[in-house]
Design goal:
Layout: E1 4-7, E2 11-18, E3 33-40, H1 42-50, E4 54-57, H2 65-76, E5 80-81, E6 93-98, E7 104-109, E8 130-135, H3 136-140, H4 145-153, E9 161-164, H5 174-183, E10 186-190, H6 191-198, E11 201-202, H7 203-214, E12 220-224, E13 229-234, E14 239-243, H8 255-268, H9 273-287, H10 299-306, E15 320-321
Parallel strand pairs: 1-4, 1-8, 2-6, 4-5, 8-9, 9-10, 10-12
Antiparallel strand pairs: 2-3, 6-7, 11-15, 12-13, 13-14
Helix pairs in contact: 1-8, 4-5, 6-7, 8-9, 9-10
Protein backbone atom coordinates (compact mmCIF):
# COMPACT_ATOMS: atom_id res chain seq x y z
CA UNK A 1 0.00 0.00 0.00
CA UNK A 2 1.35 3.44 -0.92
CA UNK A 3 -0.97 5.49 1.32
CA UNK A 4 0.47 6.85 4.55
CA UNK A 5 -1.41 7.92 7.69
CA UNK A 6 -0.05 11.12 9.25
CA UNK A 7 -1.44 11.19 12.79
CA UNK A 8 -1.31 14.65 14.37
CA UNK A 9 -3.22 13.77 17.52
CA UNK A 10 -1.84 12.78 20.91
CA UNK A 11 -0.54 9.67 22.63
CA UNK A 12 -0.42 9.04 26.37
CA UNK A 13 0.40 6.23 28.77
CA UNK A 14 -2.64 4.42 30.17
CA UNK A 15 -2.56 3.05 33.71
CA UNK A 16 -5.30 0.43 33.51
CA UNK A 17 -7.04 -0.99 36.57
CA UNK A 18 -9.65 -3.76 36.24
CA UNK A 19 -12.29 -3.64 38.99
CA UNK A 20 -15.66 -5.31 39.57
CA UNK A 21 -17.44 -1.93 39.79
CA UNK A 22 -16.57 1.71 40.39
CA UNK A 23 -16.11 2.50 44.09
CA UNK A 24 -18.74 4.61 45.82
CA UNK A 25 -17.60 8.09 46.95
CA UNK A 26 -15.32 7.84 49.97
CA UNK A 27 -14.69 4.11 49.54
CA UNK A 28 -11.88 2.04 48.07
CA UNK A 29 -11.66 -0.89 45.67
CA UNK A 30 -8.84 -3.34 45.06
CA UNK A 31 -8.15 -3.95 41.38
CA UNK A 32 -8.07 -7.49 40.05
CA UNK A 33 -5.33 -6.55 37.56
CA UNK A 34 -3.13 -3.63 36.55
CA UNK A 35 -1.28 -2.78 33.35
CA UNK A 36 0.74 0.09 31.97
CA UNK A 37 0.12 0.45 28.22
CA UNK A 38 0.44 2.99 25.43
CA UNK A 39 -2.89 4.69 24.82
CA UNK A 40 -4.67 7.72 23.41
CA UNK A 41 -4.04 8.12 19.69
CA UNK A 42 -1.67 5.16 19.78
CA UNK A 43 -4.68 2.83 19.61
CA UNK A 44 -5.91 4.33 16.33
CA UNK A 45 -2.41 4.23 14.84
CA UNK A 46 -1.99 0.57 15.76
CA UNK A 47 -5.30 -0.31 14.10
CA UNK A 48 -4.24 1.37 10.86
CA UNK A 49 -0.74 -0.11 10.98
CA UNK A 50 -1.86 -3.68 11.71
CA UNK A 51 -4.21 -3.53 8.72
CA UNK A 52 -1.43 -2.60 6.33
CA UNK A 53 -1.10 1.19 6.37
CA UNK A 54 2.20 2.98 6.93
CA UNK A 55 1.76 5.25 9.95
CA UNK A 56 3.81 8.24 11.14
CA UNK A 57 3.21 10.37 14.22
CA UNK A 58 3.36 14.16 14.04
CA UNK A 59 2.33 15.02 17.60
CA UNK A 60 4.51 15.51 20.66
CA UNK A 61 6.08 12.99 22.99
CA UNK A 62 7.78 14.03 26.21
CA UNK A 63 11.12 13.61 27.91
CA UNK A 64 10.84 11.26 30.86
CA UNK A 65 9.69 7.74 31.75
CA UNK A 66 6.28 8.01 30.05
CA UNK A 67 7.76 9.51 26.88
CA UNK A 68 10.39 6.75 26.81
CA UNK A 69 7.68 4.13 27.28
CA UNK A 70 5.68 5.53 24.36
CA UNK A 71 8.71 5.70 22.07
CA UNK A 72 9.41 2.05 22.74
CA UNK A 73 5.78 1.17 21.98
CA UNK A 74 5.89 3.16 18.72
CA UNK A 75 9.10 1.42 17.69
CA UNK A 76 7.62 -2.02 18.42
CA UNK A 77 4.73 -1.26 16.02
CA UNK A 78 6.97 0.27 13.34
CA UNK A 79 5.49 3.77 13.76
CA UNK A 80 7.92 6.62 13.09
CA UNK A 81 7.83 9.80 15.20
CA UNK A 82 8.42 12.91 13.07
CA UNK A 83 8.91 15.52 15.79
CA UNK A 84 11.70 15.69 18.40
CA UNK A 85 10.78 15.07 22.05
CA UNK A 86 9.67 18.01 24.15
CA UNK A 87 12.62 19.18 26.27
CA UNK A 88 10.28 20.69 28.84
CA UNK A 89 8.01 17.92 30.12
CA UNK A 90 7.09 14.26 30.04
CA UNK A 91 4.20 12.75 28.12
CA UNK A 92 0.80 12.71 29.79
CA UNK A 93 -1.01 9.76 31.27
CA UNK A 94 -4.50 8.45 31.89
CA UNK A 95 -5.91 6.26 34.65
CA UNK A 96 -8.45 3.90 33.11
CA UNK A 97 -10.77 1.88 35.35
CA UNK A 98 -12.41 -1.03 33.51
CA UNK A 99 -15.44 -2.46 35.28
CA UNK A 100 -16.81 -6.00 35.10
CA UNK A 101 -19.38 -5.02 32.43
CA UNK A 102 -16.48 -3.91 30.15
CA UNK A 103 -17.24 -0.20 30.57
CA UNK A 104 -14.47 2.26 31.39
CA UNK A 105 -13.92 5.46 33.36
CA UNK A 106 -10.95 7.77 32.74
CA UNK A 107 -8.96 10.39 34.63
CA UNK A 108 -6.22 12.01 32.55
CA UNK A 109 -3.21 14.26 33.13
CA UNK A 110 -1.99 16.26 30.08
CA UNK A 111 1.71 16.35 29.29
CA UNK A 112 3.86 17.18 26.28
CA UNK A 113 1.07 16.13 23.90
CA UNK A 114 -0.91 19.17 25.09
CA UNK A 115 1.72 21.65 23.82
CA UNK A 116 2.13 22.18 20.06
CA UNK A 117 3.47 25.09 18.04
CA UNK A 118 3.84 25.51 14.29
CA UNK A 119 7.62 25.45 14.76
CA UNK A 120 7.35 22.05 16.45
CA UNK A 121 5.28 20.81 13.51
CA UNK A 122 7.69 21.93 10.78
CA UNK A 123 9.01 18.35 10.29
CA UNK A 124 5.42 17.14 9.67
CA UNK A 125 4.79 17.40 5.93
CA UNK A 126 1.77 15.82 4.25
CA UNK A 127 2.36 14.79 0.64
CA UNK A 128 0.05 13.49 -2.11
CA UNK A 129 -1.24 10.03 -1.19
CA UNK A 130 -1.20 10.75 2.56
CA UNK A 131 -4.21 10.69 4.86
CA UNK A 132 -4.15 13.04 7.87
CA UNK A 133 -5.94 12.39 11.16
CA UNK A 134 -6.49 14.23 14.40
CA UNK A 135 -8.81 13.91 17.36
CA UNK A 136 -10.64 16.26 19.66
CA UNK A 137 -8.23 15.61 22.51
CA UNK A 138 -5.45 17.68 20.96
CA UNK A 139 -7.94 20.42 20.04
CA UNK A 140 -9.21 20.53 23.62
CA UNK A 141 -5.79 21.61 24.96
CA UNK A 142 -5.32 25.41 25.11
CA UNK A 143 -1.61 24.94 24.39
CA UNK A 144 -2.06 23.04 21.13
CA UNK A 145 -5.43 23.86 19.55
CA UNK A 146 -4.51 27.07 17.72
CA UNK A 147 -1.34 25.78 16.09
CA UNK A 148 -2.94 22.48 15.10
CA UNK A 149 -5.99 24.20 13.61
CA UNK A 150 -3.77 26.54 11.57
CA UNK A 151 -1.76 23.53 10.35
CA UNK A 152 -4.91 21.62 9.35
CA UNK A 153 -6.32 24.60 7.45
CA UNK A 154 -3.04 24.87 5.52
CA UNK A 155 -3.17 21.28 4.27
CA UNK A 156 -3.13 20.95 0.46
CA UNK A 157 -6.64 20.59 -0.95
CA UNK A 158 -6.08 17.04 -2.20
CA UNK A 159 -5.05 15.58 1.18
CA UNK A 160 -7.93 13.71 2.89
CA UNK A 161 -8.39 14.82 6.50
CA UNK A 162 -10.18 12.55 9.00
CA UNK A 163 -11.50 13.92 12.29
CA UNK A 164 -12.77 12.21 15.44
CA UNK A 165 -14.19 14.77 17.92
CA UNK A 166 -13.98 12.29 20.88
CA UNK A 167 -15.88 12.57 24.20
CA UNK A 168 -14.09 15.85 25.08
CA UNK A 169 -15.89 17.70 22.27
CA UNK A 170 -17.56 20.06 24.76
CA UNK A 171 -14.07 21.30 25.77
CA UNK A 172 -13.24 22.42 22.22
CA UNK A 173 -14.09 26.10 21.62
CA UNK A 174 -16.80 26.28 18.97
CA UNK A 175 -14.80 28.54 16.60
CA UNK A 176 -11.94 26.01 16.63
CA UNK A 177 -14.34 23.10 16.11
CA UNK A 178 -16.06 24.87 13.21
CA UNK A 179 -12.74 25.56 11.45
CA UNK A 180 -11.66 21.92 11.74
CA UNK A 181 -15.05 20.59 10.60
CA UNK A 182 -14.90 22.91 7.59
CA UNK A 183 -11.70 21.14 6.43
CA UNK A 184 -12.86 17.61 7.28
CA UNK A 185 -13.05 14.98 4.52
CA UNK A 186 -14.40 12.20 6.77
CA UNK A 187 -15.96 12.71 10.18
CA UNK A 188 -16.21 9.70 12.50
CA UNK A 189 -18.05 10.17 15.78
CA UNK A 190 -20.41 8.39 18.14
CA UNK A 191 -24.06 9.34 18.56
CA UNK A 192 -23.45 11.65 21.53
CA UNK A 193 -20.67 13.52 19.76
CA UNK A 194 -22.79 13.87 16.59
CA UNK A 195 -25.59 15.38 18.65
CA UNK A 196 -23.18 17.75 20.41
CA UNK A 197 -22.28 19.18 17.00
CA UNK A 198 -25.58 19.08 15.12
CA UNK A 199 -28.37 18.64 17.70
CA UNK A 200 -30.49 15.68 18.72
CA UNK A 201 -32.42 13.43 16.34
CA UNK A 202 -32.26 10.02 14.72
CA UNK A 203 -28.84 9.10 13.31
CA UNK A 204 -29.76 9.73 9.67
CA UNK A 205 -31.22 13.18 10.35
CA UNK A 206 -28.18 14.18 12.40
CA UNK A 207 -25.83 12.87 9.70
CA UNK A 208 -27.58 14.99 7.08
CA UNK A 209 -27.23 18.09 9.27
CA UNK A 210 -23.56 17.34 9.88
CA UNK A 211 -22.90 17.34 6.15
CA UNK A 212 -25.09 20.25 5.11
CA UNK A 213 -24.44 22.60 8.02
CA UNK A 214 -21.04 21.71 9.47
CA UNK A 215 -18.80 19.73 7.10
CA UNK A 216 -19.25 21.35 3.66
CA UNK A 217 -16.16 19.69 2.14
CA UNK A 218 -16.73 16.22 3.56
CA UNK A 219 -17.19 13.12 1.42
CA UNK A 220 -19.14 11.49 4.22
CA UNK A 221 -19.73 11.00 7.91
CA UNK A 222 -19.72 7.86 10.05
CA UNK A 223 -21.85 7.77 13.19
CA UNK A 224 -20.73 4.86 15.38
CA UNK A 225 -23.24 3.07 17.61
CA UNK A 226 -21.03 0.64 19.53
CA UNK A 227 -22.08 -2.99 19.22
CA UNK A 228 -24.89 -1.99 16.86
CA UNK A 229 -22.44 -0.94 14.14
CA UNK A 230 -22.55 2.41 12.38
CA UNK A 231 -24.37 4.62 9.92
CA UNK A 232 -22.59 5.96 6.85
CA UNK A 233 -23.96 9.05 5.13
CA UNK A 234 -22.35 10.25 1.90
CA UNK A 235 -22.30 13.82 0.65
CA UNK A 236 -24.02 12.65 -2.55
CA UNK A 237 -27.06 11.59 -0.52
CA UNK A 238 -26.46 7.88 -0.05
CA UNK A 239 -27.11 6.43 3.41
CA UNK A 240 -26.29 2.96 4.66
CA UNK A 241 -26.68 1.37 8.08
CA UNK A 242 -23.91 -1.17 8.60
CA UNK A 243 -24.68 -3.72 11.37
CA UNK A 244 -22.19 -4.63 14.06
CA UNK A 245 -21.23 -8.14 15.16
CA UNK A 246 -22.24 -10.28 18.12
CA UNK A 247 -19.25 -10.92 20.38
CA UNK A 248 -18.60 -11.34 24.11
CA UNK A 249 -16.99 -8.05 25.16
CA UNK A 250 -14.36 -8.04 27.90
CA UNK A 251 -12.88 -4.55 27.38
CA UNK A 252 -14.39 -1.74 25.27
CA UNK A 253 -11.41 0.58 25.79
CA UNK A 254 -10.02 1.60 22.38
CA UNK A 255 -12.89 0.18 20.32
CA UNK A 256 -13.70 3.53 18.72
CA UNK A 257 -10.03 4.12 17.92
CA UNK A 258 -9.80 0.67 16.35
CA UNK A 259 -12.88 1.39 14.24
CA UNK A 260 -11.47 4.64 12.89
CA UNK A 261 -8.00 3.23 12.18
CA UNK A 262 -9.39 0.21 10.33
CA UNK A 263 -11.87 2.41 8.42
CA UNK A 264 -9.19 4.81 7.18
CA UNK A 265 -6.88 1.94 6.26
CA UNK A 266 -9.67 0.29 4.27
CA UNK A 267 -10.60 3.51 2.46
CA UNK A 268 -6.94 4.08 1.59
CA UNK A 269 -6.83 0.61 0.00
CA UNK A 270 -9.73 1.54 -2.25
CA UNK A 271 -12.68 -0.07 -0.44
CA UNK A 272 -16.04 1.65 -0.76
CA UNK A 273 -17.24 3.52 2.31
CA UNK A 274 -19.75 0.78 3.19
CA UNK A 275 -17.19 -2.01 2.72
CA UNK A 276 -14.76 -0.03 4.87
CA UNK A 277 -17.42 0.44 7.56
CA UNK A 278 -18.16 -3.29 7.70
CA UNK A 279 -14.42 -3.99 7.89
CA UNK A 280 -14.10 -1.44 10.71
CA UNK A 281 -17.09 -2.93 12.56
CA UNK A 282 -15.37 -6.31 12.47
CA UNK A 283 -12.09 -4.82 13.70
CA UNK A 284 -13.83 -3.11 16.62
CA UNK A 285 -15.77 -6.29 17.47
CA UNK A 286 -12.56 -8.30 17.64
CA UNK A 287 -10.83 -5.62 19.73
CA UNK A 288 -13.44 -5.72 22.52
CA UNK A 289 -12.89 -9.45 22.98
CA UNK A 290 -9.32 -8.69 24.12
CA UNK A 291 -7.90 -6.80 27.05
CA UNK A 292 -6.05 -3.54 26.46
CA UNK A 293 -6.73 -0.41 24.40
CA UNK A 294 -4.24 -1.25 21.64
CA UNK A 295 -5.88 -4.63 21.00
CA UNK A 296 -6.59 -4.00 17.32
CA UNK A 297 -6.55 -7.13 15.14
CA UNK A 298 -4.47 -7.64 12.01
CA UNK A 299 -5.94 -7.54 8.54
CA UNK A 300 -5.71 -11.32 8.33
CA UNK A 301 -7.65 -11.72 11.59
CA UNK A 302 -10.38 -9.39 10.33
CA UNK A 303 -10.75 -11.27 7.05
CA UNK A 304 -10.92 -14.58 8.92
CA UNK A 305 -13.61 -13.16 11.21
CA UNK A 306 -15.63 -11.86 8.24
CA UNK A 307 -15.41 -15.22 6.50
CA UNK A 308 -17.39 -16.91 9.30
CA UNK A 309 -20.72 -15.74 7.90
CA UNK A 310 -23.58 -13.71 9.30
CA UNK A 311 -22.87 -12.54 12.86
CA UNK A 312 -24.50 -9.15 12.52
CA UNK A 313 -26.49 -7.38 15.21
CA UNK A 314 -29.33 -4.96 14.59
CA UNK A 315 -28.24 -2.01 12.45
CA UNK A 316 -28.27 1.47 14.04
CA UNK A 317 -30.37 3.32 11.45
CA UNK A 318 -33.03 4.45 13.93
CA UNK A 319 -30.67 5.05 16.87
CA UNK A 320 -31.19 8.41 18.54
CA UNK A 321 -28.33 10.89 18.77
CA UNK A 322 -28.58 12.58 22.14
CA UNK A 323 -26.40 15.34 23.47
CA UNK A 324 -24.28 14.71 26.54
Amino acid sequence: MSARLVHVGSAVVDYVYRIDALPAPGTEKTATSYARVAGGGFNMMVAASRTGMKVVFGGQLGTGPDGDFLRAAFAAEGIETLTPPSPFMDSGNCVAMISRDAERTFVSWPGAESRLTLDMMKPVQAVPGDWVFTSGYTLSYPGSRDALTDWIEALPAGIPFVFDPTPVIADIPRPILDRVLARTTWLSCNTNEAAEIAGAGDAQTVAIRLLTEHCPRAEGVVIRAGAHGCLVRMADGGTRTVPGFKVEAVDTNGAGDTHIGAFVSALARGMSSCEAARYANAAAALSVTRHGGSSAPTGEEIQEFLSHGDQATTAPGQAKATAT
